[in-house]
Amino acid sequence: MLIAIPLTQGLNFYHSNPFTAPQFGIYSIEKQDHSITYLQKEVIQNPWSQIFDGEFCNEQITCNCSEEKQCELTHMVQHYGLADLLSNCAYLLVDKRCENIAKTFQKLHIRLYKIPAIIKNPTSAIKNLIIGVSLADHIQDIHYAS
Fold this sequence. Notes:
This protein is an alpha/beta fold. It has helices spanning 47-51, 58-61, 67-71, 73-85, 99-107, 122-132; strands at 2-7, 23-32, 35-45, 91-94, 111-114, 141-144.
């Protein structure tokens, strides 16, 4: 299973709107017998961050877009572009998200999984997902695949 994690430039978990994340870590999670391993496959740049030169308005960063803005075709298409970029993933781990991201990703069968604000690194986010979605039933070890 592949998952996407929004990342800061320093490769920490990005807690604001994933649309405004500088990049995404793509991780594979494999379950074998009584063990789960995860491995970072790649880090991909967010094309929207590049297009906007990382300059997003506070409304976008905090997911507080007005209802009018959310109904704009441009706004919706931007989210489809992000979903297409992450289309091979089963999950996108998020803290904040707008309704358009939720709708878009749901239509493309990518589940959003809420990560608490106290989580700072991808490893903790992955472990939170594994425990939270019951992948960890009967698992004895969760570790990074070396």
